Amino acid sequence: MLTSVKIAIAEPSAIVRAGLEAQLRKLQHYKAQIIYLMDEQRREWQDVAAVISADIYLINPMLTGANPRAQLPDLAFE
Are 31 and 3 in contact (CB under 8 A)? Predict the structure, then answer.
């Protein structure tokens, strides 16, 4: 039985996004539902991240600046 997992990706590079998706689709015990927080038309990924629910967030650290927690106030940190 596969466990469904929602993965949100904030990555400006289409090549990197495609590579991440290809690797995540290979997970054997999980069915990855991938949500892109940004793409060529949508650059404000924080707005999307604030209204969706995901199990895992993969965010390019270059997008968050020096203080990632300030950029992601609505996400839970563990």
Answer: yes
- Within 8 A by CB and 6+ apart from 21, the residues are 9, 34
> Coil, strand or helix: which one is 68?
helix
Query: In the structure, what pLDDT confidence band is assigned to residue 55 with cuts at 50, 70 and 90?
Result: very high
Which of helix, strand or coil describes residue 14? helix
> Would you say 63 and 10 are in contact if contact means Cβ atoms under 8 Å apart?
yes
- Residues 77/6/30/25 CA torsion (nearest 10 deg): -110
pTM here is 0.77
Look up residue 9 and give its two tokens.
């990706």
Distance CA 54, CA 62 (A): 21
